[in-house]
Design goal:
Elements: H1 7-15, H2 52-62, E1 75-84, E2 103-112, E3 127-135, E4 138-145, H3 158-165, H4 181-188, H5 194-200, E5 215-216, E6 221-224, E7 230-239, H6 248-257, H7 261-271, E8 277-286, E9 312-321, H8 327-331, E10 344-346, H9 350-366, H10 448-455, H11 459-474, H12 479-489, H13 494-504, E11 560-564, H14 571-583, E12 587-592, E13 596-599, E14 605-608, E15 610-611, E16 622-625, H15 631-635, H16 638-649, E17 653-657, H17 660-665, E18 680-683, H18 689-700
Parallel strand pairs: 11-12, 11-16, 12-15, 16-17, 17-18
Antiparallel strand pairs: 1-2, 1-9, 2-3, 3-4, 5-7, 6-7, 6-10, 7-8, 8-9, 13-14
Helix pairs in contact: 3-4, 4-12, 5-10, 11-13, 12-13, 14-18
This protein binds CIS-heme D hydroxychlorin gamma-spirolactone 17R, 18S.
Biased composition (Polar residues): 526-541
Domain Catalase core: 25-413
Pfam family, one: Catalase-rel
C-alpha cells in the first residue's frame, strides 16, 4: 500500500490514472473481487439493493454525460506551446509576449459552431479556434474563429442567431446545417450579417484540415504597455501549411465516409510528428487612429484590411501532444474571452462585451460549478490565492480560519498586488455618455466590406459562393425568404444575385427591402436605421482569398495520396512514389480491391491499408495508379471509377504511368481533360523520379478548380 508522504504525491495520485497494473477498485478504493456479476439472492434469484458496487458503477455511468456546449459542441483539441519570436514590450506588458524565445504551454481547441457533439466535422460552418495560454501571470484565452468577422453587431442578437441556425425546434432537423428556413429567415432580416455570410458561403467554411485554417480574434482588443499607454489590436493566426479547403460535394461525402475527418487528421498529424504550427500576428492600430477608417473598429462585422494595417508576427504556436483523455481535457476545457492577463484589455465592441458575461455563465451550467477552474485542464500555472470558498466539487482544501479581505488574523493574506507587482488594471478609458439602447451610426454600413470580400475572390472562388448560395437557398422552402436574401445579395454584387437567382428559378427583387436592427417585421419596414454602403478604401485584398492568400506555402507535408494497386502492380513504381512522398513528409497509402498482401510484379508484396470498401477518394489529396500486370482486373472495377470520378470532380491531382494511364482514357471524364490541366500527370513510360516530382509539384497547387464549370461567368 502507498503511504502518501506529502500533499503533492497525493495530488498526483488523484489526478493521473492510466489504469495499468492496478487492482480494480471502487471509487472509494476498495478492491473489487468480481466485476462481472451483480449480488443476487441465489444464482437465479433477484438482485440485492445491498450491492453497493453495482450501484456505484451504474450511478456513475448514468451521470457520465455533461451538457454539451450550447455552441461549438463538436471539437477537437491538442496541447502544445507558444514561443515568442518577435517580442513587443513597447506595446504590451504581457509577460508571455515580452521575451524572445519564451515558451508558454497552450491547449488549442478547434470546433464547428452549429452541430451537436456527435455531428460531422465537415459541416458548412465557421470554425472555432480557441487557445488557452498557461502563462506565468495567469490564464490567457484567445477565443477566436477561422473567420475574422461575425454575423451580428450586438450580443443581444446572439441567442436569436443561434436559435435560427440550430435544428428547427419542432422536428430537430437539420443537424449541423445552415441550409434551412429559420436560418435564412433570420439572415434575410439582418443585413448586418451579409459580410459574414460571404465568408460562410465561401470555402473558408469547409476547411481541408484544422491545421490549414487561419484564426482571428474577431474583436478589436487593447494592448497596454508598462507606461499604461494603449493601442488597439486585432489578433491573427497564420497556418504554416497554408489555408486550404475541400469542395462542397466532397465535404458532404466526407461527412458520410468519415465524420471524424478533421478530428482524425489533427490526431494523426500529431501522432506522426507532423506538428501543426501557426504564427501569431497582430495588427496594431494607434489610439489616435481610432476613428480614422471608414468602418468602426468596435464593429465586429468589419475587418481591418491588411493593406491598411499589416500583420506583424510576434510568435508561433506548435501543437505537439494529443490529449490523454478527450473528456477530461477537450470536453472540460473552459474558454473565456474574459480570461486575460496584464497588458491585454477589451475594447467596447458590444459583441465582445456580451461574451464577457456569457462564458462564465455557460461553464456554470455545463461544468456544473464555480469550481471549474480547478479541473486539471483549466488550472492556472500561476498560483491561485483568494477568498472564494466551497461550492460543488471543491478540490482545494483551504486551511485556516480566514476567508475574507481585509483581515488581520491571516496577516492580511492574500493581499492585493500593486500594478508594478503584476496586479491587473483595466485601461483608464474615459467614458462619459448617456445610457442608451442604441447602435452607433458608424455601424450602419452592412455591404461595403461584403463587397470587398467578394471582389477579392478569384473567379473560381466566386463560383463556389454562387454554388453554396444556390445550395443553401435551394433547401429553403419559403419563397419570400429566398427573394429577400436575393435582394440583400444584389446590394453586394448584382451578378452574384442574378447567378444565384438563376439556380433558384427566381427573380432578383428591386434593391432596398432591408428591414434591420430594431425589431422590424418584414411587413413593417419603416422606422429603422437605413443601411448604407460605404465603399472600402481598399478595393480588393489578397489576404481575403484562400487562393491568393500570402499564407499559402508550397508544402505537401502530411498530405495523403491514394496509390491504387492490384496483384501484379509494379513494385518499383510503388516504391518510387512512396519514397518521393516521404521526402516531402507526405504519405502514400495503398488501396486495393482487398486488404492484406498484394503480390507485386517482382514477386514481392505490398500491404493494402484500405480496400475500396474502407477508403474513398474524398479521404485523400491525390490519386496515383502505378502500372502493372493486374490492370485489366482493375479496369473492370466500378469502385475504381467512382474513386477516380470523385478525384477529378474535386479537382485533385491524378497520376498514372505506363499502361495505367490508359485506364484514365476509359474514365467517364476522359473527354473533359484539357491539355492545360496541370493536375493530370500521365506518362506512357514507367514512372521515374521525374514523374514523382511532377506529381508532387502538382500537389503543391492543392486543387485545380479551373476544371469546374464557372457559375459566376
Ligand atoms: Fe462564443 N460561445 N459567443 N463566439 N465561442 C461559446 O462558451 C457567445 C463568439 C467561440 O472550444 C460558449 O464554453 C456569445 C464570437 C469559440 O470551448 C458560449 C457570443 C466568437 C467557442 C458562447 C459569442 C466566438 C465559443 C459555448 C456573442 C469568435 C468554443 C460553450 C455575444 C471570436 C470554445 C462555451 C471552446 C463558445 C457565447 C460570439 C468564438 C455560450 C454570447 C464572435 C471558439 O459561452
Amino acid at each position: 500500500m502507498k503511504n502518501f508522504q506529502d500533499e503533492k504525491q497525493r495530488d498526483l495520485s488523484i489526478n493521473k490514472s492510466d489504469g495499468t497494473n492496478k487492482f480494480l477498485t471502487t471509487d472509494q478504493g476498495l478492491r473489487i473481487n468480481d466485476d462481472n456479476n451483480s449480488l443476487k439472492a441465489g444464482e437465479r434469484g433477484p438482485s440485492l439493493l445491498e450491492d453497493f458496487i453495482l450501484r456505484e458503477k451504474i450511478t456513475h455511468f448514468d451521470h457520465e454525460r455533461i451538457p454539451e456546449r450550447i455552441v461549438h459542441a463538436r471539437g477537437s483539441g491538442a496541447h502544445g506551446f507558444f514561443e515568442v519570436t518577435n517580442p513587443i514590450p513597447e506595446l504590451t506588458k504581457a509577460g508571455f509576449l515580452k521575451e524572445k524565445g519564451l515558451k508558454t504551454p497552450v491547449f488549442a481547441r478547434f470546433s464547428t459552431v452549429a452541430g451537436s457533439r456527435g455531428s460531422t466535422d465537415l459541416a458548412r460552418d465557421a470554425r472555432g479556434f480557441a487557445v488557452k495560454f498557461y502563462t506565468q501571470e495567469g490564464i490567457y484565452d484567445l477565443v477566436a474563429n477561422n473567420i475574422p468577422v461575425f454575423f451580428i453587431q450586438d450580443a443581444a442578437k446572439f441567442p436569436d442567431l443561434i436559435h435560427a441556425v440550430k435544428p428547427e425546434p419542432h422536428n430537430e432537423i437539420p443537424q449541423a446545417a445552415s441550409a434551412h428556413d429559420t436560418f435564412w429567415d433570420f439572415i434575410s432580416l439582418m443585413p448586418e450579417s451579409m459580410h459574414m455570410i460571404m465568408w460562410v458561403m465561401s470555402d473558408r467554411a469547409i476547411p481541408r484540415s484544422y491545421r490549414m485554417m487561419e484564426g482571428f480574434g474577431v474583436h478589436t482588443f487593447r494592448l497596454i504597455n508598462e507606461q499604461e499607454e494603449s493601442v488597439f489590436v486585432k489578433f491573427h493566426w497564420k497556418p504554416k501549411l497554408g489555408t486550404h479547403a475541400v469542395a462542397w460535394d466532397e465535404a458532404q461525402k466526407i461527412s458520410g465516409k468519415n465524420p471524424d475527418f478533421h478530428r482524425e487528421d489533427l490526431w494523426e498529424a500529431i501522432e506522426t510528428g507532423n506538428f501543426p504550427e501557426w504564427e501569431l500576428g497582430v495588427q496594431v492600430i494607434p489610439a489616435e487612429d481610432e476613428n480614422k477608417y471608414e468602418f468602426d473598429l468596435l464593429d465586429p462585422t468589419k475587418l481591418v484590411p491588411e493593406e491598411l494595417v499589416p500583420v506583424t508576427i510576434v510568435g508561433r504556436m506548435v501543437l505537439n501532444k494529443n490529449p490523454d483523455n478527450f473528456f477530461a481535457e477537450t470536453e472540460q476545457i473552459a474558454f473565456h474571452p474574459g480570461h486575460i492577463v496584464p497588458g491585454i484589455d477589451f475594447s467596447n465592441d458590444p459583441l465582445l462585451q456580451g461574451r464577457l458575461f456569457s462564458y462564465t455563465d455557460t461553464q456554470l451550467s455545463r461544468l456544473g460549478s464555480p469550481n471549474f477552474h480547478e479541473i486539471p485542464i483549466n488550472r492556472s500555472v500561476a498560483p491561485v490565492h483568494n477568498n472564494q470558498r466551497d461550492g460543488h466539487m471543491r478540490q482545494e482544501i483551504n486551511k485556516g480560519r480566514v476567508s475574507y479581505h481585509p483581515n488581520s488574523l491571516g496577516g492580511g493574506c492574500p493581499y492585493q498586488a500593486q500594478i508594478e507587482q503584476g496586479g491587473f488594471s483595466s485601461f483608464n478609458e474615459r467614458v462619459d455618455a448617456h445610457k442608451v439602447r442604441e447602435r452607433s451610426e458608424s455601424f450602419n454600413d452592412h455591404f461595403g466590406q461584403a463587397k470587398l470580400f467578394f471582389n477579392s475572390q478569384t473567379p473560381e472562388e466566386k463560383s463556389h459562393i454562387v454554388k453554396a448560395l444556390r445550395f443553401e437557398l435551394g433547401k429553403v422552402e419559403t419563397t419570400a425568404i429566398r427573394v429577400r436574401v436575393l435582394g440583400l445579395l444584389s446590394q453586394i454584387d448584382t451578378t452574384l444575385a442574378e447567378k444565384v437567382a438563376l439556380g433558384l428559378g427566381a427573380t432578383v427583387p428591386p434593391i432596398l427591402e432591408t428591414p434591420i436592427n430594431k425589431g422590424v417585421s418584414p411587413e413593417n419596414e419603416g422606422g429603422s436605421q437605413e443601411p448604407q454602403t460605404i465603399e472600402s478604401s481598399v478595393s480588393a485584398s489578397e489576404a481575403l482569398s484562400m487562393i491568393t492568400n500570402p499564407t499559402n506555402s508550397p508544402t505537401i507535408a502530411s498530405r495523403k495520396v491514394a496509390i491504387i494497386c492490384s496483384d501484379g502492380v509494379s513494385e518499383a513504381a510503388v516504391l518510387n512514389i512512396k519514397r518521393a512522398l516521404k521526402k516531402e513528409d507526405a504519405k502514400g497509402c495503398i488501396i486495393a480491391p482487398h486488404l492484406g498482401s498484394i503480390v507485386t510484379d517482382a514477386d514481392g508484396a505490398v500491404a493494402a491499408e484500405f480496400s475500396f470498401l474502407t477508403a474513398s477518394s474524398v479521404l485523400f489529396d491525390a490519386v496515383y495508379i502505378p502500372h502493372g500486370l493486374g490492370l485489366n482486373a482493375l479496369a473492370e472495377n466500378d469502385d475504381l471509377f467512382e474513386f477516380l470520378n470523385d478525384a477529378y470532380k474535386h479537382c485533385k491531382v491524378i497520376g498514372a504511368d505506363g499502361e495505367a494511364s490508359e485506364i484514365l482514357s476509359s474514365a467517364p471524364f476522359a473527354s473533359k481533360i484539357t491539355n492545360d490541366d496541370e493536375g493530370i500527370i500521365l506518362t506512357s513510360e514507367a514512372a521515374t523520379e521525374g514523374f514523382a516530382q511532377d506529381f508532387i509539384t502538382a500537389m503543391t497547387k492543392h486543387r485545380f478548380w479551373q476544371r469546374e464549370p464557372n457559375l459566376y461567368n
